[in-house]
Write a structure and sequence with these properties.
Blueprint lengths: L8 E5 L4 H12 L3 E6 L2 H19 L3 E5 L5 H10 L5 E4 L14 H29 L2 E6 L12 H18 L8 E6 L7 H12 L5
Parallel strand pairs: 1-2, 1-4, 2-3, 4-5, 5-6
Helix pairs in contact: 1-2, 4-5
Bound molecules: NADP nicotinamide-adenine-dinucleotide phosphate (NAP).
Length: 210
């Protein structure tokens, strides 16, 4: 099936592995040009090279990468200095740590809200008006099923991502949809990635509840 997105430009955050990598791979397979972002330059370059080797000859898609922390203003500025007029934006970054809410101070909350709520909002703010003026745009936020079915040890994630969900629901009801721009959240359950391995390992160390 032709999805009709070949030749479009996508920004995929957290793209060197896991779910972001899966999105980048699927987009390149469809002939979408992709700018991949992650912090670790070595892994990011290896992942981009893999996509180039496997798909670029057949799809003619371009694959660029930018090693930056997308949760910082400087990181986002470096990404947008490479390109700004994205048709598709996948917002994604590492999830907050698990734990007991009694141990989380203001700093822990600010970090979670920054990464999992304010960063997607900044990325949306920077790209939706351009999408609307061109009559096409797709924003996809990778969040978590914990928004719908909160998990006790994932309080930071439950809280920060619920804030994003509320914000996005409001924006999606604005006139942007009539201009061809849709905003959707993906709520993954359990996927076999490094993140899920780390979480399961941490949970297995926790003493069993009485
Ligand atoms: N896997 C699941 O089953 C599952 C379930 C529910 C929700 N989620 C959520 O989905 C998201 C992706 O999870 P995943 O399992 O794909 O994780 P992952 O395998 O650990 O991959 C995370 C990716 O994001 C990049 N990244 C992390 N922090 C970043 C930052 N500040 N700036 C730019 N890139 C960053 C990582 O590279 P660098 O470390 O090099 O930056 C890596 O490429 C997370 O928010 C996670 O909580 C996952």
């Amino acid at each position: 099936m032709d999805l009709g997105i070949a030749g479009k430009w996508a920004l995929v955050c957290g793209a060197s592995k896991g779910l972001g990598w899966g999105c980048a791979q699927a987009l390149v397979q469809e002939g979408v040009n992709v700018l991949m972002v992650a912090r670790g330059a070595e892994q990011l370059e290896a992942s981009a090279s893999k996509l180039i080797a496997e798909y670029v000859d057949s799809t003619r898609a371009s694959v660029l990468f930018c090693a930056q922390d997308i949760t910082t203003q400087a990181g986002r500025a470096a990404v947008f200095a490479m390109r700004r007029d994205f048709d598709i934006v996948v917002t994604n970054a590492g999830g907050p740590p698990t734990g007991d809410f009694r141990d989380w101070d203001r700093g822990a909350w600010i970090k979670a809200v920054d990464a999992n709520m304010l960063t997607p909002i900044e990325l949306i703010k920077a790209t939706v008006d351009g999408m609307a003026s061109r009559g096409f745009g797709r924003i996809v936020n990778i969040t978590s099923s914990s928004v719908k079915a909160p998990i006790d040890v994932l309080g930071l994630s439950n809280g920060a991502r619920s804030g994003l969900t509320g914000f996005v629901a409001g924006v999606a009801r604005s006139p942007l949809a009539a201009q061809g721009v849709t905003i959707n959240n993906l709520l993954p359950g359990v996927f076999d990635t490094d993140r899920i391995k780390t979480m399961l390992e941490a949970n297995s160390q926790r003493p069993a509840k009485a």
